[in-house]
Design a protein that fits this description.
This protein is α/β, with parallel strands linked by helices. It folds into 2 domains: about 150 residues, 2-Layer Sandwich (VC0802-like), CATH 3.30.2130.30; about 180 residues, Rossmann fold, CATH 3.40.50.150. Helices cover about 30% and strands about 25% of the residues. It is built from 10 helices and 14 strands. The strands form 2 sheets. Strands 2-3-1-4-7-6-5 form a 7-stranded mixed beta sheet. It has a 7-stranded mixed beta sheet with strand order 10-9-8-11-12-14-13. Helix 3 packs parallel to helix 4 and helix 5 crosses helix 6. This is RNA methyltransferase. It holds the Pfam family THUMP. One of its GO terms (molecular function) is rRNA (guanine-N7-)-methyltransferase activity. It comes from Stenomitos frigidus ULC18.
């Protein structure tokens, strides 16, 4: 069994660990900004295809003590790189973390690249080229407390970039965070889902993918592992066919999104078309003041602007008060979840939350607030 590490947004480690267990991972261990787990190649491919929360799935190759540049160079050279890399394949090295001696990630990455290509020159008389955008082999280096961990990045581009969303609003929510919020809320596909501030549609679309059992990896053009020397493309094709066959034909309950901006609703419709759910999810241009509950009960989700990137100059306090009034007066019998990165603004909603979940939107600490509306 191989050792893997799924990188995730800070605070979502326990949630991601649960998701990985459901996908069949072994020895699951949440850490800082990630989850370690074990499994075979089939699991690696399945997690890349199905996991909704991680950014990248790394396969661990080696770990060694590493105090300085010399130890780093020698440690990298103890790996037989011909198993993973031939001179006709391109490579890139991404370094994270640091120690007292190795405190510059660019230098660390350069040292690792040098160690690899010099081994190639010595053994086969030729070397791989560096390709930063889409290398055949993406090598991940992490330095922590004088220990170097060497992994291969099996995902390629970050998994949160599903591939269905070329059109985004001005402050888009990452797809993986949207999926995490939905998971945190306990929303079930049998409940109606409505986002009255949907922007380019990320929350309703992630809810649709979950409800229709659509694997998020199906929209990607490429996974990093597809250009590995031991890639099993027939296994990947089999997993893709199984994923497509397991999709549901219809939603158990309606999923709606609205926004006052017609242009972003057009973007949401493009995104819904790209992930094949346009016939399932409903988008409309509706101003918040005209929003009304489309059913007797359901789950309302929204990510209102909180002054970091949007609406800095507008009166957001009044907007939050209006949101609270709409929830109180028109959504009795519903449960609402509001994501906010501004404590002061969230108090303007004027409702008492029954639960709060701490999450990070990028580097910004936020809270997902739950409101039971009676």
């Amino acid at each position: 069994m191989n050792q893997y590490f799924a990188t995730v947004a800070r605070g979502l480690e326990p949630l991601a660990a649960k998701e990985l267990e459901q996908l069949g991972a072994h020895a699951v261990e949440p850490g800082f900004c990630g989850v370690a787990f074990a499994g075979d190649r089939t699991l690696l491919y399945r997690v890349n295809l199905w996991a909704r929360l991680p950014f990248r799935i790394l396969m661990k190759l080696h770990e060694f003590p590493c105090k300085d540049a010399e130890e780093l160079y020698h440690g990298i050279q103890t790996i037989d790189w011909s198993i993973y890399l031939t001179p006709d394949l391109t490579l890139a090295v991404n370094a994270t973390g640091k120690s007292e001696q190795l405190n510059h990630t660019h230098f660390t990455a350069l040292q690792v690249k040098t160690a690899i290509v010099e081994q190639q020159q010595e053994t086969v008389g030729d070397r791989s080229d560096v390709e930063l955008q889409s290398p055949d082999l993406q090598i991940s280096i992490h330095i922590d407390r004088d220990v170097c961990t060497v992994s291969l990045d099996s995902s390629g581009k970050s998994l949160h970039r599903r591939g269905y969303r070329p059109a985004v609003g001005s402050a888009p929510l990452k797809e993986s965070l949207a999926a995490a919020l939905i998971q945190l809320s306990g929303w079930q596909p049998e409940q109606m889902f409505y986002d009255p501030l949907c922007g380019s549609g990320t929350l309703p679309l992630e809810a649709s993918l979950k409800a229709l059992n659509i694997a998020p990896g199906l929209f990607r053009e490429h996974f990093g592992f597809e250009t590995w020397l031991d890639a099993d493309l027939s296994l990947l094709e089999q997993l893709i066919q199984e994923a497509e066959a397991s999709q549901r034909d219809s939603l158990p309950a309606p999923i709606w999104g609205s926004d006052r901006d017609e242009a972003v609703i057009d973007q949401a419709i493009v995104n819904a078309t790209n992930c094949g759910v346009l016939n399932h999810v409903y988008f409309a241009a509706i101003d918040l003041e005209d929003v009304a509950a489309p059913a007797d009960n359901g789950v309302l989700f929204c990510n209102p602007p909180y002054g970091e990137r949007l609406g800095r100059d507008s009166d957001l306090g009044a907007f939050y008060k209006q949101l609270g009034d709409v929830l109180k007066q028109r959504f009795k019998g519903w449960t609402a979840f509001v994501l906010s990165g501004n404590k002061e603004l969230s108090q303007s909603i004027g409702l008492k939350s029954s639960q709060r979940f701490a999450v990070y939107n990028g580097t910004l600490p936020c809270q997902l607030m739950k409101y039971e509306l009676y």
